[in-house]
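Before a colleague's protein record goes any further, I have to sign it off. What it holds is a sequence and that sequence's fold in token form. My question to you is simply how this chain folds and whether the tokens agree. Thanks in advance; the entry in question is below:
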Amino acid sequence: MSSSGQRVAPEDGGHPAAPADALADLEHALCQPLAAGLKPVLEAARDALLQATAQCQSAQQRYRALFDAFPDPVSILSASGTVLDVNAAGVQAYGRSRQEIVGQPIELLNPDLPEDHLQPVWDTLNRGQTYVIEVTNMRGDGSRFPVEVHSASFQNDGQPCIVAVARDLSRRWQAESRYRLLLESIDKGVMLFDQHFQVISANPAAHRILGLGAEPPTQIPMEGEEWITVDEHGRRLRTEQWPVSRAFRDGHTIPSTIVGLYHRPRGRMIWISITTVPVFSCGRDLPDHVFSMFSDVTELKRDHVLFDRAQALAHIGGWEWDRGQQRLYLTGEAQRILGHTPPPATLEQLLQCLGSDDRLRLQQTLDREVERKRGFELDLQGLRGDGHSVWIRMIGEIEAGDMASSRIAGTLQDITERKHAEETLKTQARTDPLTGIMNRDAALADLKARLGNPSHAQVAVLYIDLDRFKTVNDVLGHNAGDELLIEATRRIANAIGTEGLLARFGGDEFVVICDAREVPEHPQLLAQAITDAFAPLFRLGKDEFAVTTSIGIARAPEDGQSPQELIQNADRAMYECKRRSRNGWQVFTPELAREQRDRLQIERRLRRALERNEFRLVYQPQVDLRGGRIVGAEALIRWRNRQLGELRPDIFISHAETTGDIVRIGDWVLREACRQVREWMDEGLGLVRIAINVSYRQFNGDNLARRLREILDEYRLPGAALELEFTERVLIEDAPATLHTFAELREMGVMLTIDDFGEGYSALNYLRHLPIHGLKLSQLFINGVPGNRSDVAVCEAVCGIARSLGLGLVAEGVESEAQRQFLLELGVPIGQGFLFAPGLSPREFARRLR
């Protein structure tokens, strides 16, 4: 017995305790005095006791076998919670020996139990009920596992005891955890409904999709104050039409169904795809629950609607041709594109909507691609039902896996606007946007086509450039320039009529392509007509301008057999015309080509002339016309090349202006002239003022005043040592900048003169604002005096302007005594020319000074 008076099973798990030893002692004590009379009685008692002991041991063995055979852990507890016994399953489950468990409080196995944990147990047991609880047991290694304990009471030797059966819940918990994890993690809504459409349970995805918040919904969202339900086409659903209602009614699974839910309070539309499964209890023929799983397809539904709208906006429809049944299916947009009522239902009817050529193309393509099992793409033209033309792009392909090629499907797109736009772009691509005539690309294409046709290969090209267009454009602005181009286009077009094809080649350049087969002089006649058309002045606002043309003519095949070569040679002829006289035309000749090649050769060698020290300066004296005293000199550049020999300045200076080399050359002239003046001063000849021509490019380049200051400082010369001569172009190109530069130069003491005044632009308005010192009478006018009255009048006018503005005068190109006398009478004090001396070497000039 334990300390509580209860009988306890032996620790070794054997039979209950036997009284064999006690019986032997009793027999020994009593046998002798009572041996004679009591011996038979004692033998009978001993036999009965041995039989009872054997029966007790047998019962104990059956108890232990049954106790240990139970698969779940079973514990026998005293009323106070001490473990009296534990079966083999318990020993294994708790990971402890029986000796470690028996006699210990139940807290050994359940360490989390509160102090009064047996009170509710005995309360339940005393009512004749079984006590069930889920707790966590602990193994000998400290690990835990969940159990469901069923406890019952029984009497042991008159003492109340508890038998507790613990069922391991680990596997069930794992299954339930996986189930809960699945329901909580999937993006599908899951709900369980009863027959009254009450929501028994709902997973988080259901809350999220329906926007129900954390509180579980109490009823299915079908009808009422909050929800409106519709089918996939937007029709209202009655209660009996809901998938859940149908599952309860029919007892069948309702597969995926699209349902729309509109929540009135939030104004939100939700589209779901719901699958509904009935749940039957045992023995029932109708479901008592319905299990629903649904997905949010709101975006898919929206995408589907947007796709339909996109098809309509993009004018793209779908089509499918069933070759086996000879049926044609067209989507609504495809039917709208074709515009026929009723819409085509067969391929033959579709072909009738197309033009004859495209009808044949589509039929042949279908036959060919069906055989090859490939797709196709065609642009086809047809007529809509209203008679209007329509362009469609038809794309088709064989359905994947269709070995018999029985179905062909694809898209049908309305590309009418695109085709019209392409035609417009083609026209625009060939048209000059300002003048409306052909552009460069169109002209080249036309010329190429003509040269490629032997019967039309004898053509001529007139390359036209507007003289002085840049002046008008710069002075009056681009708008005025555009007006001038439009008027020039009109004049050229009227001049050539239908005898030539006119194109704008870019800027102020035009090209006329004409036939030169029958009348050889036809190109020249057109060129003269164009020249005459530009004789009247151009009126732009209140101003009038004389704008003429320089025209170059080249003809095929003698002047070129490709468009590029022909136009290039016409361009060469045009530049020759502009170089010579302007306002006329020039026919391309081999000699002209040779001259231009020579010019190219000059330009090529000119670029390296400075590095090779091929330039030199000569100095033409400027003398007092009355007494002949040298008062200064003009520095004149000379160039001698090893291959080309001595070249005149009028030949290579124009090339240098064109190529831009004039800036480097002009800088060298300034430096060399200043070096020479310094050398003469060092020789005791005094300060000689040298006149130097400054080109427009040099004037507009880097800061001329700053550069000149550096050179003067380098050779320790005053500004009065130089006289800079500018052309009249400087006067009007950029008046504000010109004023600033002239002021800087004058402040340095440099003399400023306008060279060849009267030859170029009429710029008297600019002349009176510039701080210049003098004018130079051009040799062009001096040549004709005193015999030519026009030249005399010009010279008199220039002298009058100089006197009225207080400017000095120098006459260049004086070659006769008569000219000297005429100039003296006009009041011109200084002149230069062959009458006095040509350009002299520095040594010869110094000798004359002495």
About this structure: Residues 462 and 553 are 5 Å apart (CA to CA). The radius of gyration is 60 Å. The chain has five domains: 20-172, 186-302, 315-421, 430-588, 605-849. The chain is about 40% helix and 25% strand.
